[in-house]
Amino acid sequence: MLKLPIYLDNNATTPMDPRVLEAMLPYFTDHFGNAASRNHPFGWQAEEAVDYAREQIAQLINCDPKEIIFTSGATESDNLAIKGVYEMYAQKGNHIITATTEHKAVLDTCKHLEKLGARVTYLQVNEEGLISLEELEAAMTPQTILVTIMYGNNEIGVLQDIRAISAIAKKHGALFFTDATQAVGKVPVDVIADGIDLMAFSGHKMYGPKGIGALYVRRKNPRVKVTAQMDGGGHERGMRSGTLNVPGIVGLGKACELARTDMEADTARISAMRDRLERELLTLEESYVNGSREHRLPHVTNISFKYVEGEGLMMGVKDLAVSSGSACTSASLEPSYVLKALGLSDDLAHSSLRFGLSRFTTDEQIDYAIGHVKEAVTKLREMSPLWEMFKEGIDLNSIEWAEH
Amino acid sequence: MTPISNPASVYFDNAATTPLDPEVLDAMLPFMREHFGNPSSIHGHGRKVRAAIENARKTIAHFLNAAPAEISFTSGGTEADNYAAFGSIRTLGLKHAVTSKLEHHAVLHTLEALAKQGEIELSFVRHDAQGRLDLAHLDELLGTHTRSFVSLMHGNNEIGNLNDIEAISGICRTHGAIFHTDTVQTMGHYRHDVRQLGNHFLVGSAHKFHGPKGVGFLFCNSEVQVQPLIHGGAQERNVRAGTENVYGIVGLAKALEIAYRDMDQHHQHIQALKERFIARLRAEIDDVQFNGLSAEADQSLYTVLNVSLPPSDMNEMLLFNLDINHISASGGSACTSGSNIGSHVLSALGCDPNRGAIRFSMSKYNTADEVDYAVAQLAKMYRKVPA
């Protein structure tokens, strides 16, 4: 028996893997110590668990365990990386390069820094969602201290050419930060091979707990430093104070370990389901995949259904938990700025759905989703005068609508 | 590699962190299993957890006599303290701040950093050798500066001193100063009424009252509006971006609910343990003293006892010796990560460095037998060697 609604919003958050919860449980009530307590076993146990998690994480992204700074989540990591670099490298310059399709955590932080005197370049993306390496190169100046480009986009799943981007940043002496919240645990991320200087990610996007994230900060070639954004006990090598969230950290560590061991098998299964879902939904006339299909996360597809009204579409697919924009902005009715950046009209942006699959998604759920979406779109179009006009061969773009 | 197992032991370090109450864990578990949605999602999975967060906010507001909109969730006490300080100083353009040398590092280092960057002038309220604040000096400092930010804690985490925050709040009101009080050690242990207190900020950290780590909150009086510390999303009405730590928030509210429900009973129980501790130590060890006001029942936290032991060769090995006897306590604050430097609070009080200092901090889970056991171990160490 299929349980409804079916959860296909795994870019917003993922269910926690039971194996992760299992690993966390002892650290709530039994091994509850403060990892900063130096004088007794409760503290040592907690510290040991934190160190072990650091190793699990380091193995997944190929870094040194000492290069991991724990935070409350990716948003805090994004803030710490960008503001921390801006303050630490103020002597060198004030220029930051990012892209218009970044997550709000990056964009809002950049906008905040602009008020404090930063100069920020926002690179456009092409209809695939990719930035132009030539434009990046042209935007670099001697004052450029940071290039911040996300690894995989949260709305369309597009994977940027991280190695080429980091090489350009390095060539011009700037640091490279990537918000890899959607990518870590889903695709192989190797901070050395990818040339990453700083990287943000979080637990709850990869079957780990909410309220925990990390920032990778490179220690060699070059040695990167960030100014702390929260002062206190000097935890996390002085870069992030506050009592460590031990169960959360244990959970993040376990999630990383599982990602490393299960990624290949998970990806094969999930991408096959994603491809089938996409193939079936594209049999609907006038439906389009948003963003690059070639350079993309394996579990995401974002599809626009033309001539379908957005709110009606969300109501029509009520058996699915999906998103019509980024989860972090979906409470508002603004069209997605990411889809608009690809060149979509407001209408087409509103009539798009993001499907995010997980390791817990089943073939049966995908079968149901395919039928459900097809039915909803077909029904909505039957009621749509625009669809009728389109079917009659009228070019809707040629019509001048009168105010009335 | 698996973490080492937990020995049978006596835990007297509850000011560092407390064990999670199993009742709290039970409240959190459904949100770790079936209700896993992102509260910003508009579908059912999201709405379910959004409702849980808003209920938690209401619960906390209710206990503090605050409006739900005045409560913002954070990753803990440190973030909340930072947020109060940075937020009000930068948003309101305050140029002067007052604190004391006895504050927690989350306040002290934050204000010192702002002073170092030249954003504020920082003054310290004088205190006596027991850590009593000189409120006349506070009044004078506020009188000689235009609008100030004042951050003075309610209960001291090391020596347990309770400050008269109502009096402080009154002085701040008179001078139009913004008053933040770090209530991390008193939240869940004492009742707070923000309307009666009239302060601008106070904070809570769940893991100090049997809630989960990684979550806390800031009360921000609706009289003041402050800029966010963390940008990037409309969560927490734009003041704190980032996907909410749903189970943490649920656990925080549950822990506070239990704390308020059982407060009188626990207060009585722990107070009795503390009195027993003091009486037994005085009976067993010559020249035992107590740092700060921690032996004064009405002027200190009932959860914290800071013991000053006579000069002895044992002092260096004090915590080590307790540890081999399975007693967990603290020499200073546990919040200074990775450092072995002495307590800044005891230094500020001018405590004799030749005397040993140890902090016992108690919770509802401690027993009279544990107190007796700890005193017996200390008595063994400090027993006079017969000539």
Automatic annotation (TrEMBL), chain B:
For the keyword NAD, the answer is: no
Annotated SUPFAM superfamilies: PLP-dependent transferases
What molecular function does GO assign, one term?
cysteine desulfurase activity
The cross-references to Gene3D superfamilies, in alphabetical order and at most eight, read: 1.10.260.50, Aspartate Aminotransferase, domain 1 (3.90.1150.10), Type I PLP-dependent aspartate aminotransferase-like (Major domain) (3.40.640.10)
The reaction(s) catalysed by this protein are: (sulfur carrier)-H + L-cysteine = (sulfur carrier)-SH + L-alanine
Source domain of life is: Bacteria
Q: Which cofactor does it need?
A: pyridoxal 5'-phosphate
| Alphabetized Pfam families for the sequence | Aminotran_5
Signal sequence span is none
Q: Which UniProt keywords apply?
A: Iron, Iron-sulfur, Metal-binding, Pyridoxal phosphate, Transferase
Family per similarity comment: Belongs to the class-V pyridoxal-phosphate-dependent aminotransferase family. NifS/IscS subfamily.
What name appears for this protein in its UniProt entry? Cysteine desulfurase
- In its UniProt entry, the species of origin is given as Hymenobacter busanensis
